[in-house]
């Protein structure tokens, strides 16, 4: 290990505890009201700062690094461009979160890269500036930079910190890919949930406006959600495909995980209002 190696930067998953679609903007994007909470199940990134502006990414999953569109490299390049930074980095990604499952892993990796390199390069951008850069990479990046559970409006960039309870979750991963773009293009997607104030939303039953449609288009999602609903209040996160059930105690969630048919994968993790990324940054 050398002094320039900085290890164990977490990139947590998020859940959308509710997700309402309030309308469609002229540019085609949808106006949302959603509640984000982190879960203590993370990708991990290690960084080695180098004194030239090269960026290299290694990963335990070959497919992740092969893609030059990788959000980690995009995030690092954007930070270099915004700050004129002449330093670079060698980055190692330990990918543990399923990709494209509505858990926000790619956005979280991007946020962790921005926060960590801003610290390690000494570029000193305030987190509001990092969030603006993050938003150009993905709608969910700002909430991961914000680092606190948040109610979000717009396309997800207007954030108000909130403190929902921190239950244990059993998250199930249906083996099907759900395209976010396809969900938002679907004619049957309900788009007219009225905008409500935060107090009303927090005290009303929580729902995901994409869930009925995604369950109809992807029987695997319907089957997995149906199974989980036998044991706990459960919903889909984001545009799917992952679903989560909520439990008061860790052992209750683990007992249900133990009953999971071999054909479905899942994990148990605690909800967290303070992001593990924020806690890691505080150690610097
Ligand atoms: C809806 C959420 C809730 O967390 O879904 P998940 O991705 O987590 O499942 C996110 O905000 C998703 O944000 P993000 O993941 O950045 O979306 P993108 O991949 O950029 O979106 C793919 C496509 O979906 C459509 N799209 C996306 C977000 C939005 N608010 N309105 C849209 O209409 C756009 O056509 C866009 O080109
Ligand atoms: N570092 C990354 N990790 C995961 N996905 C990435 C990454 N960089 C780019 N992507 C792309 O982003 C897409 C969305 O990934 P992810 O954030 O995990 O899902 P979701 O938006 O459904 O929560 C992936 O299908 C992949 O093509």
From TrEMBL:
Q: Which InterPro entries match?
A: GHMP_kinase_C_dom, GHMP_kinase_C_sf, GHMP_kinase_N_dom, IspE, Ribosomal_Su5_D2-typ_SF, Ribsml_uS5_D2-typ_fold_subgr
Q: Which residues form the active site?
A: 14, 140
Q: What class of enzyme is it?
A: transferase
Gene3D superfamilies from the xrefs? 3.30.230.10, GHMP kinase, C-terminal domain (3.30.70.890)
Q: Which UniProt keywords apply?
A: ATP-binding, Isoprene biosynthesis, Kinase, Nucleotide-binding, Transferase
Q: Which GO terms describe its molecular function?
A: kinase activity
Q: Which residues bind ATP?
A: 98-108
Q: Superkingdom of this entry's organism?
A: Bacteria
Q: Tell whether Isomerase is among the UniProt keywords.
A: no
Catalytic reaction(s) noted = 4-CDP-2-C-methyl-D-erythritol + ATP = 4-CDP-2-C-methyl-D-erythritol 2-phosphate + ADP + H(+)
Query: Which residues are in the GHMP kinase C-terminal domain?
Result: 197-262
Pathway assigned in UniProt = Isoprenoid biosynthesis; isopentenyl diphosphate biosynthesis via DXP pathway; isopentenyl diphosphate from 1-deoxy-D-xylulose 5-phosphate: step 3/6
**Enzyme Commission number(s) from the entry:** 2.7.1.148
- Domain GHMP kinase N-terminal, residue spans: 70-147
For this protein, the record's PANTHER family field holds: 4-DIPHOSPHOCYTIDYL-2-C-METHYL-D-ERYTHRITOL KINASE, CHLOROPLASTIC
Q: Which family does it belong to?
A: Belongs to the GHMP kinase family. IspE subfamily.
Record function comment: Catalyzes the phosphorylation of the position 2 hydroxy group of 4-diphosphocytidyl-2C-methyl-D-erythritol.
The record ties this protein, via HAMAP family, to: IspE
State what protein this is by name. Answer: 4-diphosphocytidyl-2-C-methyl-D-erythritol kinase
**Source species taxonomy:** Bacteria, Pseudomonadati, Pseudomonadota, Gammaproteobacteria, Alteromonadales
- Gene name, please? ispE
């Amino acid at each position: 290990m050398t002094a320039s190696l900085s290890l164990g930067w977490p990139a947590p998953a998020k859940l959308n505890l509710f997700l309402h679609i309030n309308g469609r903007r002229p540019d085609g994007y949808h106006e949302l009201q959603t509640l984000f909470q982190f879960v203590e199940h993370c990708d991990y990134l290690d960084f080695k700062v180098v004194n030239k502006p090269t960026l290299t990414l290694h990963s335990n999953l070959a497919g992740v690094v092969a893609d030059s569109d990788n959000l980690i490299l995009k995030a690092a390049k954007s930070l270099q461009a915004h700050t004129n930074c002449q330093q670079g980095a060698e980055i190692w990604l330990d990918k543990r979160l399923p990709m494209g499952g509505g858990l926000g892993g790619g956005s979280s990796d991007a946020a962790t890269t921005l926060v960590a390199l801003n610290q390690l390069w000494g570029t000193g951008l305030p987190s509001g500036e990092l969030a603006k850069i993050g938003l150009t990479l993905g709608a969910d990046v700002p909430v991961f930079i914000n680092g606190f559970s948040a109610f979000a409006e717009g396309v997800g960039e207007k954030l108000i910190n909130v403190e929902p309870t921190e239950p244990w979750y059993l998250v199930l991963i249906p083996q099907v890919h759900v395209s976010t773009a396809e969900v938002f293009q679907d004619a049957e997607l309900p788009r007219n949930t009225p905008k409500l104030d935060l107090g009303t939303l927090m005290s009303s039953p929580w729902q995901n406006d994409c869930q009925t449609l995604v369950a109809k288009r992807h029987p695997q999602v319907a089957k997995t959600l149906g199974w989980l609903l036998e044991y706990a209040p459960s919903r889909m996160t984001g545009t799917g495909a992952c679903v989560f059930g909520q439990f008061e105690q860790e052992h209750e969630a683990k007992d249900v995980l133990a009953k999971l048919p071999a054909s479905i994968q899942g994990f148990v993790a605690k909800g967290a209002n303070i992001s593990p990324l924020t806690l890691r940054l505080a150690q610097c």
